[in-house]
Amino acid sequence: MWRRVGDSNPRETYASTRFPGVRLKPLGQLSGEGAKHKPERAPRQPEQTILAILNKTTICSVVFFDIVEYSKKSVAEQIKLKNSFNALISRAIENVPVNDRIILDTGDGAAISFLGDPEDALLSAMKFRDAVIAEHDFFVRIGINLGPVRLVEDINKQPNIVGDGINVSQRIMNFAQPNQILVSRSFFDVISCVTDEYAKLFEYQGSRTDKHVREHEIYAVRSEISQEEALQASLKHAHQPAESRKKAPWWADRKMLLRRVFPLAAAVLVIAAILVKMSWEPAKPPPPAPAPLPQSAPSAASIPAAASMPAPVAAKPSAKPEKKHVEKKRKEEVRRKKALPEATSTLVFRIMPWGEIYVDGKKRGVSPPLKDLNLAPGKHEIEIRNTNLPSYGKSVETKPGESVIIEHQF
Fold first, then answer.
1. Checking phi first, is residue 102 left (phi over 0); if not, alpha (psi -120 to 50) or beta?
2. Of the four, 2, 89, 155, 277, which is 20 to 30 A from 261 by CA?
3. What is the pLDDT of residue 101?
4. CA gap 379, 399 in Å, rounded
């Protein structure tokens, strides 16, 4: 990885970049304003320089800058604009470690790949935008994307960045208005998980289609929030003492809410099911009448009296009550099966850095932030996609109440 710094020493042999009057210096060596903010680092070994990571794909945040109507200006004005632009770029990234960034000149702007924290890309872009609005009379458009890039050598044996990560950042930038910052869905999903304060910086702008008929979901950084306000808001909670932080109620924490409410709800459902089952249980039939005791033979004197009495008629059992009871029991059994909730299974996703989740050919969301998904028990085809990287597929067969963990790293 390389860094562009101003250096007019003619004895330096490092390859020059496309920035006028700017040269490449190896990582680990700081000069100028950057040295005031970062400590000196030991020089890296030759195998650790930019040549060691050529032709390797990595996931990073790419910020694409463009000067509005740059090509319509005269050569003298273009040189003046580019010098001001380069100075603002240096100020915007002065606090980013040298080995966490790669800068490319695009003629009417620049593309910077941030290999470290996504926060560096967002805060640097906001700092650059604020400086342009406050100090200069030209306009810029800025697009940010998180995606795969590959570091290669160009025809002049100089380092260059290629890949879907930088291509999408340029497409996102093309949708921006002057002095506006737009970010892709992949970048928003990652940066919004860092802290809730970052999620409040964005406004959803909908889906846009580029000239290659590819759709992009984009978010705009609020123009009324400056880079300093965003930085202070993100650090406010981290710098606050633990004992002075106001403890949020337990129902405000989703995990705590599930941990406390779910067992109680499950217990209530079990008790309700038992009561319903008891109420539907058919009444027990009455015990059978005892068998009559054997009688002795009647005496001769009692025969005439017994003969004069009419013989009792035995009652025939009715079949209708028994049929009604069986029919009622069958209907109650059908009603009970319909009332019981159908059991489901759960898929738990652990995807790094992110991926689009497809279940049985249907898109179900992006993980992160998607963490789990409830499905009907059975066999399902799972596919995870990440832009132009090879997709990951897996067949799973779930059982009722079972949780299946799916892990993958692109």
1. beta
2. 277
3. 86
4. 9
d(CA 175, CA 219): 11
* pLDDT tens string 333-371: 777 666 545 567 888 888 888 888 898 888 888 888 888
Q: How far apart are CA 354 and CA 375, in angstroms?
A: 21
* Residue 325 to residue 328: CA distance in whole angstroms: 5
And the tokens for 365?
Answer: 């969301």
Sheet strand arrangement including 345-352: 372-375, 345-352, 403-409
CB 100 within 8 A of CB 120: yes
- Judged by average pLDDT, the poorest of 8-12, 79-83, 128-132, 325-329 is 8-12
- The two three-digit tokens of residue 55, written as one number: 């032709």
In the chain, the domains with their CATH numbers are 2-239 (3.30.70.1230), 345-409 (2.60.40.1120)
- Write down the number of H helices and E strands in the chain: 10, 17
Residue 331: exposed, middle, or buried by beta-carbon count in 10 A (0-12, 13-18, 19+)? exposed
Share of the chain above pLDDT 90, in %: 22
Q: Which three-class secondary structure string do you get for 43-61?
A: CCCHHHCHHHHCCCEEEEE
pLDDT at 66: 94
CB atoms within 10 A of CB 311: 7
